[in-house]
Amino acid sequence: MRKKMGKTIQMGISGGMVAVFIGSLVLHWPWDQVLILGFFGMLLSGGLFIGLVDRLNQNQGKRLLAVSGLIPGFLIGGGLYPITGSLPLSVLFGLIGGVIWFGGCGVFFIRKLEALQWYVSYNIEIITTFILSIIGTSLGLRFVKMIYTPYEWLNAIFIVILPLILSLCLAIFPGVILARNHRRPTFAATLGLISGAIVSWIGINVAPLLFLPGSGLLWAGLITGGLMILVSIFGIFYPQWSSFLGGLMIFFSILSFVGAAGGLIIGGLLGIYSGSLMGAWVQKEEKVIQSSLEGDENRQAIISEY
Predict the structure, then answer these.
(1) How far apart (Å, rounded) are the C-alpha atoms in residues 273 and 254?
(2) Where does a domain end: 179, 205, 225?
(3) Residues 89, 218 within the same domain
(4) Are 61 and 196 within one domain?
(5) 39 with 153, same domain?
(6) 2-21 and 125-146 helices cross at what angle (nearest 10)?
(7) Which of 155, 183, 207, 280 is 20 to 30 A removed from 20 (C-alpha atoms)?
(8) What CA–CA distance (Å, rounded) separates 270 from 253?
(9) Structural contact between residues 103 and 63, judged by C-beta atoms closer than 8 angstroms
(10) 205 contacts 188 by C-beta, under 8 angstroms
């Protein structure tokens, strides 16, 4: 029941975000009408999920990830508009492509990865996939602008393919990270990489301007962020040192508040959380093997008694 409620909320939030996107950026409605549209979109999406959830088995339920292709489809359609000259046609093509890509190809790839034990479902999978697909599409469209060519047909291919591939890779990334977390502290290391990048970026661009102008602590933030990234990388390749590396991550995260304002607090707190997870990480396979060996010894002892 709790799992069903969680997925219903995620579907509702996704539907509300799609409605807000359409109302604000496509229809250009005032914000009061946009919020009303978002509310009804949330109710419609959540209600639709409740109506379908009992009719879908676990494998078919993955098809609900097709909602992740809606806003990427809009964005790709907008990118195609200067080439096609028809906004409705471009948006329609983008929507169809986005839904098919995530609901068809995306689900296919996820199932293949699950069969290889390289992907695992998690509680907030729907909303996480939805948000990361938007981020990946936006990054893909930015990359397309960097490689813009004089050939419109080639630009159209890049506008469609590159954002879709990047958005799908980014969307399934958390499931891959969690699937490998039993062997290496991949989840904690990923958070550490993100926090280190934030601290480094803030140390270079923001903190000296807002907090410490001309104090020369710019390099302190850069070095601290670099050390956080380095510790995260070591955590992936040397999981046996996870306790020690977790302590280092917490130490460098605290230092980041001196040179980079803690990555505007977010980076520092995320680094402390990452260090805590890394320090507490234990390789689960060893526990399973140890428990199985203990079970064998107990069974052998029982047999010997008889």
Answers:
(1) 11
(2) 179
(3) no
(4) no
(5) yes
(6) 30
(7) 155
(8) 8
(9) yes
(10) no
Helical H segments across the chain, by residue range: 2-21, 31-53, 58-61, 70-84, 87-100, 107-115, 125-146, 152-179, 186-201, 207-210, 218-237, 242-259, 261-264, 266-280, 284-305
- The whole model's pTM is what? 0.75
pLDDT (tens, 9 = 90+) of the chain, 306 residues, equals 666 677 778 778 888 888 888 888 777 888 888 888 888 888 887 766 666 655 555 555 566 778 888 888 888 888 888 877 887 888 888 889 888 999 888 889 999 998 888 898 888 888 889 899 999 999 998 888 888 777 778 888 888 899 999 999 999 999 999 888 888 888 899 999 998 888 887 767 655 555 555 555 556 677 888 889 999 999 889 888 888 999 999 988 888 777 566 566 788 888 889 999 898 888 775 444 444 444 444 444 433 343
Domain boundary among 135, 161, 179: 179
- Cα pseudo-dihedral 123, 128, 130, 135, rounded to 10: -170
Find the Cα–Cα–Cα–Cα dihedral 265, 194, 19, 86, rounded to 10°: 130
Q: Does residue 112 lie within any of the structural domains? A: yes
Residues 218 and 146 in one domain: no
